[in-house]
Amino acid sequence: MRAYLIRRLWQGAVAVLGALLIVFVAQRLAGDPVALLLPMDASAEDFAAMREALGLDRPLPVQFVVFLRDALTGDFGESYQWQAPAMPLLLERLPATLELALAGLAFALLLAVPLGVMSAVYRGRWVDRLAKVLALLGQAMPGFWVGLLLILFLAVRLQWLPAFGREGPLHLVLPAVALGWYPVAAMTRTLRSSMLDILDSDYIRTGRVMGLPERTVIWRYALRNAAVPLATMIGVYFANMLGGAFVIEVVFAWPGVGRAVVDAVFARDFPVVQAGVVLSAVIFVVVNLLVDLSYGLIDPRIRHG
Amino acid sequence: MRRGVLAAAWLCAGCLLSLPLVAVDDGDDAHVVVAFAAEPTQIDPTRTSAGVDQYFMALFYEQLLTAGPDLRQRNWLAESWRLFERDGVWLIGVELRRGVRFHNGDELTAHDLRYSYLRQRDPSLSRQAGRWRHVADVRVLGDYELEIVFKGLPDSALLPLNLDLWAIPRRYYEEVGNEGVQAHPIGTGPWKFVSRSLREEIVVERFDDYWDPDSLPGIRRLTIKIIPEDTTRVAAFKTGAVDWIDAVPPAQVADFERTPGVKVASLPTSNNLFLALNALDPRSPLGDVRVRQAVAHAIDFDAIIRYILHGQGIRTVQVTPGAPGHDPALKAYAFDPDRSRELLRQAGYGRGINMNCYNLTTPREPYLKEVGEAMFAYLTAAGIRCRIVQLEYGAWINLGRRDARPEMDGIASWMWGHGALGDPTDPWGGHLHSYGDGWGWYSYHDDPELDGMVETLRVTVEPDAKEALIREIARLKHERVAGGVPTYRPLVTLAWRDTLRFEPWPQANWRMMRDIGLADSPVP
Amino acid sequence: MAERRVPVVSCVVLGLVLLCAVAGPWFAPHEASEIALAESMTPPFWRSGGSLDYPLGTDMLGRDILSRIIAGARVSVTVAVYAIALSGGIGAALGISAGYFGGIVDAVISRLIDIQMSIPAIPLAMLFAAVLPPGEGMVITIIVLTYWTWYARIVRGEVLSLRERDFITVAKVAGVSSPMILIRHLTPNVLNTLLVLATLQFGSVIVFEAGLSFLGLGIQPPQVSWGGMLADGRNFIEVAWWLITMPGLAIMASCLASNLLGDWLRDTFDPKRRIT
Questions:
Q1: Do B238 and A159 touch (CB under 8 A)?
Q2: C-alpha distance from residue A79 to each of A31, A89, A276, A277, C215 (Å)
Q3: In sequence order, which residues have a C-beta less than 8 Å from that of residue B365 and are 6 or more positions away?
Q4: Which residue of B has its CA nearest to A42?
Q5: Does C3 touch chain A (CB under 8 A)?
Q6: Could you give phi then psi for residue C37, rounded to 5 degrees?
Q7: What is the DSSP letter of B63?
Q8: Does A180 touch chain B (CB under 8 A)?
Q9: How far is residue B42's CA from residue C93's CA, in Å, rounded to a whole number?
Q10: What is the CA angle B42-B44-B49, rounded to 5?
Q11: Is A145 within 8 Å of C252 when comparing Cβ atoms?
């Protein structure tokens, strides 16, 4: 278990390091990183000072080390749009994004778990076919378009739900549906196929033979075992949702990290953009690590050697 | 089934929604939530660089004079003032109103206004420092008395700018510094700062020690949300999340006017829009007056105003219609794309030209992005092929500034307000007069004759002479297509629920939240 | 089984999209960027006020929605073709190398894949949108950077299993050089996989491009893109519903078609479902 943990931590660290490397390369790709990192009206002294701070006269590897040193202390430069350090600005908005991603995940599970289980149990029947259609639609309708349609019908036409901002649980409904829409398809499919495998297994047959009620067999024993592949997906999709939230936040004017980063791209506020990329990579890695470690909790048969 | 499941989920959500969204106290303690489309970047009036900054400044800060809802200038923090000559020196003598207090309790004195002057003329702090080039000093004669001393002739732009000085608390500024002022602005205005969260909202509270207790707002607290997206702002109003919005989209003004329980006001902004053209390089196509005229002939502005803006714009040839110096005889370039092509041909560009066209996408004025796209589509159709670059406000303002990179190397959708009173003196100094020596911060033109006239205009105070000079500059500016092609002055439409009482004041383009209260509360 | 039938509808839809991309300007009723302000916000023809001149209505500037959707197909297909060719090519090359050579090569490439996959696609796109000039080139670059791992990972797995198969071993024993084995024997075997992946990717590239353009970071006007049309229509959602529905339907139809076709191809070429 410990060896496994160390290996996963090491892999995570390498991945984050890689993300930092990509950001660093992107910075240099743009030509003069100083022009990228300073406001457009910066003075010649500002330029000289920044050049010095980045160590631009030194070889590239040294520059990367300087960049890493700053990054490890959370220093990605100062947002010139908001005149404040970039990373804290984003961390301030992280709760809103996490909230949205969690709500999206909750919506996706709420729809995918019953659909996945039912379509396995009633294989080939109408529930199964419905799940299939839903899955196809889910993958073909981009979340931001679903968001626009939700706004059109539920906020503008029917005026049932608020279309913008973050004022309370109601405001969370539409963005969460738009964000959770996409993974429903894949989650349903995964759950369905693992349910099918398990329903066929001796383990479940034994349960049935022992006379356990069908409901208990399906929802308690089969689902529990079928949930492992789903858990892997939850990790992947949750992390992807944090990325997807970038677009959904713009659609619904949600005050999260994504909207700030999109704004920053337009305002040529590069420090915020690079902080946003690194932040999402770190979250991605951490979430996946947590998911890996949680397998043992879901399925006691899995023990990491 | 799919529909069934979703409908059920949405139905549940709908039930929850029937709970009230915003609790509004009644009477004097009310808290009203409103929404603005755009957000200022600067709160400190001595450091402002853009008209949008007025939106928050106007809550906290006041000037010596002001314009009321009737657009007439009136004394404000000045008890009285006069322009006079003494021993060959021109002066403006000001007597201050007594008993005016800042939000921190300090009393306003002439020293605070001199401090404001020192900040406003400091180029390291203020983008408007050039405005003070005609002023030798602001002298304090006593706690309530000061003199603006001119170097030579008096500056004619100071008067329409309400003498331009701002009442800022010197002691507080020196104590907390620039950052501190940004974090917590203090002025003499009717609203006190409570909190701000960038890109989200600002919360203010009524200043009960305001110098004019009769004109205090009728509500205790005001939250201004920033909602740039038209759809979400309108939805916020319709669902009751906010009770007042600015910039109702022109396509929806008629719908708002028909809605019971909603009051609507469409008002001319103090903003003047134009197409900026870089005419600095004589070798570039735009350096040729015929090409600039081709630009002016290529676009059907009347159609833009009618169909895109739904009439929410006033066509301008140069000076705002109705403003001093407006010349009804000066006619706009007719929409005539054939003429444009002919002019291009004469200039030696028979095959047309390629051009960078910069479009402002921030909803600073209604449908700016769409108007820009239409203008550029017209240009393209007439042979001036636009490569459109979409810009957000910050990048856009930097593009226009002469001291920043990158350089605006083509055509840009631009704006510079002539103010509530429609006086072009200051904007012409900024985008018609050539760049340098405090002039022409946003200018892409260099015409010595016009420079001289703009400089003269700056020191022409006598109304008739000033009007005549404005007319003359306008004519030449028009003929030479100098300092850009004026397009229109937008109207802004405000809407509020009739549970509110609201009288628009022209400050901050009618977004001044001075005369606001609950409809059933007594009118001050 | 029903799913084994050739998905005719998908082929028709994709054929139509390709036709629009190649020959759109010849049969589109209007020029995509032609403005007619007096006709602005005309509803689709079946609504009152609509007209057959503008079958799907017009936008704010009186531009014909149908013609713009046709023009948008061109951008979508161009981006998709380049992005798929490049990400498929790069991904396959790296995947084959990793699978075939194993050892240090595999370790390096696998680590690269891990790193790339640890950065969510959209933030990565933001990063490049901030440093590269916007437009088709940037969109293609971003998509290639995002998707090559997908090809590389699957192809690597494929090659790993092929490597152990008899005919490769025989070739090695017979002294055939490595490049020869790669080109002659491995590549044809992974081509089927690549075809399936490419078809499936078509849909997601269209969605990805639309998303970027919707944010204003992708295709820039006056070039027309479906995502950009949605962004333009967003501000008029209350007065003109067709602005945000029609381009969305185009995205959905082409994505659905390519997914269905891809699924069918996969079922045909890869009954054991190694590709996910």
A1: yes
A2: 20, 9, 12, 14, 21
A3: B247, B269, B271, B273, B415, B490, B492
A4: B404
A5: no
A6: -55, -35
A7: B
A8: no
A9: 53
A10: 50
A11: yes
Q: What is the pLDDT of residues B36-64, one digit of tens each?
A: 988 887 889 998 877 788 899 999 999 99
Using CA atoms in the order B234, B235, B239, B243, what is the torsion angle rounded to 10 degrees? -30
Q: Which residues of C touch A242 (CB under 8 A)?
A: 120
Q: Are strands B488-497 and B262-268 parallel, antiparallel or unpaired?
A: antiparallel
Under 8 Å between Cβ of B204 and B224: yes
Q: What is the pLDDT of residue B26?
A: 44
Interface of B with A in 385-444 (CB under 8 A): 391-395, 398, 401, 403-406
Whether chain B has a CB inside 8 Å of the CB on A161: the answer is yes
Is C175 near chain A, with CB under 8 Å? no
What are C121's two structure tokens? 């696609």
Is residue B156 within 8 A of residue B466, CB to CB? The reply is: yes
Q: Which amino acid is at A46?
A: D
Nearest-angstrom CA–CA distance, B168 and B115: 8
Q: What pLDDT, on a 0 to 100 scale, did the predictor assign at position B158?
A: 87
Give the whole-angstrom CA distance, residue A275 versus residue A86.
6
- The span from the CA of B144 to the CA of A200, in Å, is 93
A231 C-beta neighbours (distance < 10 Å), count: 16
Cα(B77)–Cα(B200) distance, rounded to whole angstroms? 32
| Cα gap B350→C134, rounded to integer Å | 30
DSSP A155: I
Give this prediction's pTM: 0.83
Establish how many alpha carbons lie within 13 A of residue B421's alpha carbon, considering only the half-sphere containing its beta carbon.
Answer: 19
Out of A40, A130, A169, the one facing B405 most closely (by C-beta) is: A40
Element (H, E) at B166: none
User: How many A-C residue pairs are in contact by the CB < 8 A criterion?
Assistant: 143
CB contact (8 A) between residue C35 and residue B378:
yes
Question: What is the distance between the alpha carbons of residues B267 and B105, in angstroms, rounded to a whole number?
Answer: 36
Tell me the chain C residues in contact with residue B307 when contact means C-beta distances shorter than 8 Å. Answer: 37-38, 40, 62
* Contact residues, chain B, for C238 at CB < 8 Å: 231, 234, 249, 252, 255
DSSP letters for B466-518? HHHHHHHHHHHHHHTTTT-EE-EEEEEEEEEETTEEEEEESHHHHTEEEEEEE
Q: Which of A32, A38, A41 to mutate to test binding with chain B, by most B CBs within 10 Å of its CB?
A: A41
Mean pLDDT of chain B: 89
* Mean pLDDT per 10-residue section of chain B, whose length is 524 residues: 44 40 53 91 83 90 92 93 94 96 96 96 81 92 96 88 92 93 94 90 95 91 90 84 93 94 93 95 90 97 95 95 93 96 95 94 84 95 92 80 82 91 91 90 94 94 93 97 96 95 91 89 54
Mean pLDDT over residues A275-297, rounded?
A: 81
Q: Is the pLDDT at C1 greater than 50, yes or no?
A: no
Question: What pLDDT digit, counting tens, does each position of B231-271 carry?
Answer: 788 888 988 889 999 999 999 999 999 999 999 999 998 89
Residue with tokens 């520059």: A63
Contacts of A159 (CB under 8 A, 6+ apart): B238, B239
Q: What span, in angstroms and rounded, lies between the C-alpha atoms of B262 and B254?
A: 12
**Beta-carbon count within 10 A of C6 CB:** 10
| C57 CB-side CA count, 13 A | 20
Q: How far apart are CA B153 and CA B136, in angstroms?
A: 11
- Helix, strand, coil shares of chain B, percent, nearest 5, are 35, 25, 40
Task: Inform me whether the C-beta atom of residue B266 falls under 8 Å from chain C C-beta atoms.
Answer: no
Residues of C in Cβ contact (< 8 Å) with B357: none
- ipTM tops 0.90: no
